[in-house]
Write a structure and sequence with these properties.
This protein is mainly α. Helix content is 75%, strand content 0%. It has 9 helices and no strands.
Length: 225
């Protein structure tokens, strides 16, 4: 059993995935309990395994499910109201995704636990298939942003010499990296009782202003979008 086709998931499949997301977010991959996931879903542990194979496959089905629904929401951004609305909506949605699921993604990005997840994934799924899924969702997310940037060029708000396809991928990678690092930093500071100098929202607002000036949105007026 590998990564499920999300179009074929039934109500029970979705319930198990949603419960697993909560458990993995709360306890990380290593400490997460399949017994607890089964209890939350109202099924036996064997049912979880019959539907998703094992713990690592359940984790990655949840992981790619999050990427799938996040990407679908980005693709539904309405371009008709114009660039300003679409650009703001895109950044807002990326920020909301990070707030909602940031702790889940830390499970595959930090320290020994991240290495454990990657080893188990390579053994059960295979590196080529994992990266195939990741590239698929990254390209779809970048294409959404590319279309928004191209709209900005048509409206004269984004510099005309910018290569929107390249910039979209760079922005998506860097924004997501910042959000992941900041989420991990905030988690560590909370654990150590250290006061945060600024919030995730404030950091994203500054990053957004920096990007806007770089691609020509603010030009020289110092305004804000």
């Amino acid at each position: 059993m590998q990564i499920r086709d999300f179009n074929t998931l039934n109500d029970l499949d979705l319930k198990i995935i949603e419960c697993s997301i909560n458990e993995f977010q709360e306890n990380g991959f290593h400490k997460a309990s399949v017994d607890k996931i089964a209890d939350m879903a109202g099924v036996g542990k064997g049912t979880v395994y019959r539907h998703f194979g094992n713990k690592i496959l359940l984790f990655f089905n949840a992981f790619f499910y999050i990427l799938s629904i996040s990407t679908e929401q980005l693709e539904k951004i309405d371009l008709s109201p114009g660039f300003d609305n679409a650009w703001n909506k895109y950044i807002e949605m990326i920020l909301n995704f990070s707030k909602r699921w940031g702790k889940f993604f830390l499970a595959i990005s930090k320290g020994e636990e991240g290495m454990l997840v990657k080893r188990e994934a390579n053994r059960n799924i295979g590196m080529k298939k994992q990266y195939g899924y990741l590239v698929h969702y990254k390209e779809r997310g970048a294409l959404c942003l590319q279309r928004i940037l191209e709209l900005g060029q048509k409206e004269g708000k984004v510099y005309s010499d910018i290569k929107c396809d390249i910039l979209a991928e760079m922005l998506l990678v860097n924004i997501n990296h910042y959000l992941m690092v900041k989420t991990a930093d905030n988690e560590m500071k909370r654990a150590l009782n250290i006061e945060e100098k600024y919030s995730l929202d404030e950091g994203v607002a500054e990053l957004k202003r920096f990007v806007c000036r770089g691609i020509g949105i603010y030009k020289n007026d110092g305004g804000s979008i």
